[in-house]
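B., you asked whether I could sanity-check this one before it goes into the benchmark set. Here's the sequence:
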Amino acid sequence: MFPETVLQTERLLLRPFGSSDIPDTQASCSDSLIQQWLPLPQPYTLDDATSWCTTVAPALRESGDGIHFAVTDSPTGRLMGTVGLKKTDWRARTSEVGYWISPWARGKGFATEATRAVARWLLTEQQFQRLELRAATGNTPSQKVAISAGFRREGILRNAGFVHNGRVDLVLFSLLPGDSAVRADALRSHASGAATRGKRGSSPE
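And here's what the prediction gave me:
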């Protein structure tokens, strides 16, 4: 299984889900746009949100399937969405990333920022060899996130997904350790860490 992990970006804190996220999870997953592209329970109740935040998300990590992060605003701690890994193949060192963004957090680039953070962590620190991302052909915003995060479009998986309205074709994207987006993020992270360590070292105790 993946280790229990917290990731920090410029604006976001990615951490495990907890009971404090239940109200915002219910509000987010009841949103019509999220319901359009994800086969979540309909209606999405408070019990559904409670189960996800306190039982299902932790169990998916413990089973080895993946890891799911609550994407939160660093200053306020409010839930902005989620990004997670699923269908992890430990022998092949591959996984698939998915995400949704809360209605109040859209249009700010949070999905791209969170996805890039998880991708860099998986492909560098966890030494995985391939990360996949799948989006319905009609889900243009999700495809834009994939491209902005540095993923490469590989093709169409016909009839490979399902939503409330039936079967859909999926666009397959991938990201590898050697891709330029991963290398650039790793270099930025290393430089930021070195700068932080330098500042700490020069500060008086």
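One thing to flag: The CA atoms of residues 41 and 186 lie 37 Å apart. Otherwise nothing jumped out at me.
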